Amino acid sequence: MSASIKWQKSSFSGGGGENCIEVGHEPGGIVMRESDDPGVVITTSPAKLAAFIRGVKAGEFDHFVN
């Protein structure tokens, strides 16, 4: 993992970023981590992340937060 990754947080993550998943890009794909545990990073492809985001927008994961 590159130390030069520019991590991006959602504006919906709370004032202090306490409810935050950060996303970045490196040559191997898209990387994600939780802001309160930045040492654990997962890597996925842009296509897989896009499919997940489409599912979130469609409400397929709402039962996890309700």
Structure description:
It is a single chain. It is built from one helix and three strands. With 66 residues, it is an alpha+beta fold. The chain has one domain (1-60). It has a three-stranded antiparallel β-sheet with strand order 1-2-3. It is globular and about 35 Å long. The mean pLDDT is 89.
Concise description?
This protein has 66 residues and is α+β, with helices and mostly antiparallel strands.
By DSSP, the count of extended strands is 3
Note the overall shape.
globular
Low-confidence stretches: none
- Average pLDDT score: 89
Helix % is 10-25%
Helix-strand sequence: EEEH
Report Rg.
13 Å
Distance between the termini: 34 Å
Q: Give me the secondary-structure category.
A: alpha+beta
Compile the SSE list and pairings.
Elements: E1 21-26, E2 29-34, E3 37-44, H1 46-57
Antiparallel strand pairs: 1-2, 2-3
